Amino acid sequence: MYEATIREAFSDDVPQYAILDMTLPMDRIGISTFHAKKLGLPLSAVASYAAKNFFRFRIPPTLRLPHPFTMVSQQDLNMVYGPGQVQSAKVNELNALLQQTYGVITLSRVGFDRSGSHAVIYAQLTYCGLCGEGVYLYLSKETGAWHIIDRSGTWIS
How many CB atoms are closer than 10 A to CB 64? Predict the structure, then answer.
C-alpha cells in the first residue's frame, strides 16, 4: 500500500525519496465528513482508518520503489528544522538529502473497506516546513496491484 501511494502520488521526476519512518501522530486520526463524502468512502473504510490511526506505526524500510529512498526520523528532522539548530555532519547530510528530494513524505496508517479491495490513506509532502501538501488518497486493488483512484486535498502551501 505504501509503495503504491508513494509511486503514484510522489514520483514525478524525483531522483530519490525522504520518508518519515513513523506514521503520523494522533492529531490526524479520523477523516472529516467532507473528505469521506468527496471520495465516496464506505463507512467501513472510515472506521478502519480511525481505529488504525489511533496508534503510530513504524514504516518498514523494505519498500520497493522506483527510486532510492532514505528513512528519516522526526528527531533527525528536528535537528534541521527545529529551534536551536546546530551545524553538524549529520545535519549537513540531511540538508543535502532534502535538497535532492521534493521534501519529506509522511504517511498515515491505512484504512480498508470490508472487502479489503479499497483503502484510504493520508499522505503529505513537506519541504522546508513552509511548502507542500496533504491529501487523502482512495485506492483500489485492481489485477492484484493497488492504484490511486481518487484524491482529496486537505492543505497546500
Answer: 7
Provide the whole-model pTM.
0.89
Q: Which domain holds residue 138?
A: 2-156
Write the pLDDT tens digit of every residue in 30-88. Answer: 899 999 999 999 999 999 999 999 888 999 999 999 889 999 998 888 887 777 777 78
For 119-150, give one letter per residue: b (16+ CB within 10 A) or e: bbbbbbbbbeeeebbbbbbbbebeeeebebee
Can you tell me the distance from the alpha carbon of 35 to that of 79, in angstroms, rounded to the nearest whole number?
A: 34
Strand, coil or helix: what is 13? coil
Domains of the chain: total: 1
For 141, the grid coordinates are 486493488
Distances (CA, A) of 113 to 4, 15, 49, 77, 145: 17, 34, 9, 34, 16
